Amino acid sequence: MPSRLALFSLLVPDYDEALAFFGRIGFECREDTDLGNGKRWVRIAPRGGETEILLARAVNERQTSAIGEQGGGRVWLFLQTEDFDGDYRLMQAAGVTFEGPPRDEPYGRVAVWGDPWGNRWDLIQFARPDRSGTTR
């Protein structure tokens, strides 16, 4: 049985634009390999993170129309932090727009933000190590 989610792809219009944005908010580029014909294998992750994002440049109309819509308009990406206030300030300074102020939920401290392509993310500091959302 597989043991972990290694990577997932995120559709973007341009590799370099995406690398610049994610670099500003503290992600590292772990690999950027030219595969020929304009295609690259670009892996990024938050510093020290295990799961990686494979940046996938949209190459046709269907993929282009899905940029920013992979979550169907919902928050679908969750960026975990152990220093919510510090990372919130860092992201604001890097130009990230938050949809509202931070809030406290049963599962942790959270603020919703959007990347340049319309994907909705949570910056989240979980209340419990097991990431549970109840007090039971």
Task: Indicate the structural class.
Answer: alpha+beta
Distance between the termini: 30 Å
Q: What is Rg?
A: 16 Å
Strand content: 35-45%
- How many DSSP helices? 3
**What kind of sheet is the major sheet?**
5 strands, mixed
Helix percentage: 10-25%
Low-pLDDT runs of 5+ residues are: none
Can you give the mean pLDDT?
95
Q: What general form does the structure show? A: globular
Q: How would you spell out the order of helices and strands?
A: EHEEEHEHEEEE
Would you write up a description of this structure?
The chain is of the alpha+beta class and 136 residues long. 19% of the residues lie in helices and 40% in strands. It is built from three helices and nine strands, in the order βαβββαβαββββ. It has helices at 15-24, 61-66, 84-93; strands at 7-12, 27-36, 39-46, 52-57, 75-80, 97-98, 103-105, 108-114, 120-126. Strands 5, 6, 7, 8 and 9 form a five-stranded mixed sheet that branches. A four-stranded mixed sheet has the order 1-4-3-2. Strand 3 and strand 4 form a beta hairpin. The mean pLDDT is 95. Pfam families: Glyoxalase (PF00903). This is VOC family protein.
